[in-house]
Give the backbone structure.
Amino acid sequence: MESLLNNIDRLLKEKRFSEVKRIVSLENPADLAALFVELFGEDFEEKSEFIILFRLLPKDIAAEVFAYMDGDMRRHLIEMFTDKELREILDELFIDDTVDLIEELPANVVSRILKNSSTGERKAINEILRYPRDSAGSIMTIEYVSLHKDMTVSEAFEKIRRVGVNKETIYTCYVTENRRLIGVITVKDLFLADEDEKLSDIMETNIISVNTHEDQELVGNMFRKYDLLALPVVDRDNRLVGIVTFDDAMDVIQEENTEDFARMAAIAPNEHSYFKTGILRHAGSRIGWLLILMISATLTQIITSRYENAFETIPLLVSFMPMIMDTGGNCGSQSSTMIIRCIALDEIHFSDFFKVVFKEFRISILVCSVLAVVNGIRVYVMYEQNILLAVTIALSIVVTVIISKIIGSSLPLLAKRCKLDPAIMATPLITTIVDCCSLFLYFNIATIIFNI
């Protein structure tokens, strides 16, 4: 990649455009989109070679490279395009890619795109745009191959050859009757069947589909669960309105995973990349949760202040506070992270609540036994064989681990039940809750054992 980058950079500066055109015609569109980023960086708007290089791309791959670029680069190119160039790009783009483009561009650029789209394309774009954001309908494409059940295999192949060039995928075809989806058939099925055989005899009628208003996260999970290449999208009357292809499902899975990681770190999700996001937006996405966690942490302060007498009587108790709190927080985080991931993979549901909590309880018994014994012996040896202190720490560890495991496993499931993202019940929030509980239990155990 680096040698290609240096070579193209040198040829552009020497204005040897014919050689550049020959080189880029042999490259993969995704690699070329990455090359634009590496070659021009964030200052692409100020470099005339940017638009020159794009215009040197062969027309058959220019649209694919355009689809792989980020929003800022595409916006700049559209502003630089003539109407003829824009129409050529739009003609090569699939409808779902055009919709994605429109959703991230300012109104004046969108108007220009719609003006240069055909009547049919505008109708299709508006049809997809009316679906709720992040729904199956909003990420589908209407460019699929539709067949009729009374067609023979040879007739089906004739139609695929006739219309397939303009479709996003032809491997999976859909059999419809009055627009209702009644069957699915693959090109492999057609190849292996006799030419005179009817599609109704070989099509798959056990159809996996999704409604237009279903959440896109469900779509991603269905691709993972059923190993699909494309998923039909139907309306309430089971009429086929579009399909979601594997590449769009991968984008959804990546987007949902990114959102989950952000929420698990107590950060509001952001649609833009790290360097494309300004400092103010970064700060704004973090400060809200930080304020909530900071204010909620005052509960720890209140609990601590209630047991000042215990500190004055046995000052050594203070030195064990960080260990008790950290152990509880770590145990709770382990459980919550595991459960959140299992929920995302559709392995655990709210109906499994008691089964999950009981399992985590049994795990906590094993974990706390080891931690309590190790810490009890350590405290007994290090602090002049103080058996009461050793028992206090050991019991506090036992109770803290059990409570933190139960809290860490139950809160994500409760969040899911309340139609919240389970990821919000991740490390920062769990740690804050467990800190309060562990301190409260620790001081109560200490006051009982030492009779303070």
Observations:
- The beta strands are 146-147, 172-177, 180-186, 210-211, 230-234, 240-245.
